[in-house]
Amino acid sequence: MVGFACAIQLFVSPPFSSLSKMANRVISGFSQVNRYIFYASLMLCPAQALSGVDTRWPSNIGFLAYNAYQQYLWYRGVKAHDLHALSLVPIHQNMVSTITYAGGIPAGDNLVVTVQCLGVIALITSSTYTMWLSWMTNLQEGYGVYKFSLLGERTLSESWRYFNCLWGIWNTMEATFMICSAIWLSIRLIRTRKDPNIEHRGGCFERMLKVLWGALCIVILVGPFVYWMERIVKLNNIVSETDTISIYLFAAQVSIMVIGSVHEICKSRGRGHPPAGQTYPPIMMV
Fold first, then answer.
1. Residue 10 has what DSSP assignment?
2. What are the TM regions of this chain, as residue ranges (predicted)?
3. How many CB atoms within 10 Å of residue 268?
4. Pairing between β-strand 238-239 and β-strand 147-149 as defined by DSSP bridges
5. CA pair distance 128, 124, nearest whole angstrom
6. CA atoms lying within 13 Å on the CB side of residue 211
7. Burial of 282 (0-12, 13-18, 19+ CB in 10 A)
8. What is the distance between the terminal CA atoms of the chain, rounded to a whole angstrom?
9. Which helix (H) or strand (E) holds 155?
10. Coil, strand or helix: which one is 110?
């Protein structure tokens, strides 16, 4: 609901204005480059999920490693009280990430599925903990100072902090649901690998169509979050140093995903049919 309000605000609000002339420097890792890479990683969720469906190559390990490092940056910033108005972001980031993290589960090997499922559960738990830690320890410092946009320019107050509490409760319920869903999806993936009656994954065009549909859904989900975060950065004139580790991890994420996909396509073409055991679980069908 809040996300849609942010999306509406994108069209009804005037251009960014009345920005503070004094820059508010925060912990490294939230520069424009780092933020855009973070958004790109979220957008790759459908491709990550599809790339790992029927391959023994751990194509989603890079995705989970990158997001684990991002969670570390958020936690470190919250713990050090070094996020300024970005302390308002974890609550929305948690709502989005708990859904996109599920794209890191699929794999064609039972052990890899299990490990990646545990990684996703750890990420969801860490994100939810950081969200509440920020609410409890950071937001009070921003009363009358931190600015954000929600159907108009707002300034953080005690009443808005309690609104964030209600939002956090909703997010916690969502996180619990997604943890249960991650466990269910993992079990489903393991069982369908052994079921010969499950339809094989389609050709290249069909896979691309699934990725495009998934990307459209992710844009609808992530778009309001991108606006929310960028608006906070602009309104509070936040600056940050670029974290090169994030860049390297993102490059590794994309490389691992592409290498696994190319390898499976080459194997499939070489044999003239999908590799034995390659199945497309109903949960992933469009």
1. H
2. 111-132, 167-190, 211-229, 245-262
3. 18
4. unpaired
5. 6
6. 17
7. exposed
8. 25
9. strand 153-155
10. helix
